[in-house]
Predict the 3D structure of the following.
Amino acid sequence: MTLVALEALAVATVMPVVVGDLGGISLYGWVFSAFFLGDLVGIVAAGQQADTHGLVRPYLMGLGLFALGLTVGGLAPSMPVLVAARAVQGFGAGAIPAVAYVTIGRQYPPGLRPRMFAIMATAWVAPGIAGPALAGVVATHLTWRAVFLGLLPPVAIAAVLTVPSLGRVARVAPGAGGASPDDAAPAGAGVGHADGNAGGRGAGPRGRLLDAVRVAVGAGLVLAALDSHQPLPLIVLGSAGAVIGVPSLRRLLPDGALRARAGLPATVLLRGVLTFGFTGAEAFVPLMLVSLRGMSAAQAGLSLTAATLTWAVGAWVQARLVGPWGAGRLIRVGLGLVVLGIGLIAVATSPSVPVGVGVVAWGLAGLGMGLAYSPITLLVLHQAPAGREGAATAGLQLSDVLGTALGAGVGGVVLAAAPGFGWDRRVALLLTFGVACVAVVAGLLVTRRLGTAAEPGPGHAGHG
């Protein structure tokens, strides 16, 4: 998880420098979207592998592809090559949180899970403190390529440290013991069909993987359609993307997720809406601070550092409060803080506003994510049938990553389209932040559909 954090924060920090070197501002959003579209496929592949073959195989597959993507990205001669490398890297990165979620679902009792998610959030603290600033310094005084290539040795170290422990995690047959009875889905919670398929419907492992590929291709076509700025490609590519992606997405997600059906489907949808809004703003915060407010890449990275630290604080707060408060209340408070943070970031685009407001604003948004993110995962694990934790969390992460990819992609489309409409950089970024804010407000409406029956209470999510 620390490797994933280092990579995410470092790349977001140095992207203004990369664009200055390679050009291709029109592909700025694709650098993030390609990673997350690859991540989407990797999550589903790792989830089904974890349910059928244990955890070591998907984990090693993920580390290998993550390292390959870092290598190609660090040597990329152009933005299209960097985008392709990020897709490979994302495929590998998708396996890491998938394996972590399944491990927590199988090895830890419900009362300890909030603390485990807080520990996972803490894995971002050290990268959050040092990562953005260090990446900015390296990119400014050496080369941005060292940011990618410098992560390769820790990949090998991570494998040595973690594989032996993962090999001892037993596989749980679907429907067998492994999770406590309290973790089973309550009646009417909306966990797929009667077969207990929490992560999708009507397809075996190979079918789910093909569906994940179709969703990624469909999402990519929709983003390409939006990026075309022409009526005919917009209609043709957008329609093709919907035809290819939507049916597969419906099969991969719990039944009724796209309609925000009460219970698990609405919870899974909410994660995607939340990440769409947060990432749709965060991907462009460093660009705003560098291009509009005159900060260096290292200084702009302070905003990401602030969000990382406050996210970890929020994760520990939710571990303490999820029992007495309930997951739903924490989620609503968290989303409210994210809306406030995005709004203040938009205000910080004005030269009359102190530039430090941008750093504080994104710290508030990070605190909101810390409060809301883990309780959403707890709700899903609480309802996952025994032995189906991989499928359930794969559905959750699928929504998570698709929202992230589309959020960054839509923002990139707005940025690329700005010159054609005569908009300056500030107007384009204000529109980007506006779209992100509207998405999180929509998430607040979805929280009404989470349902109290599916919510871990004091007896399930205490401190152990």
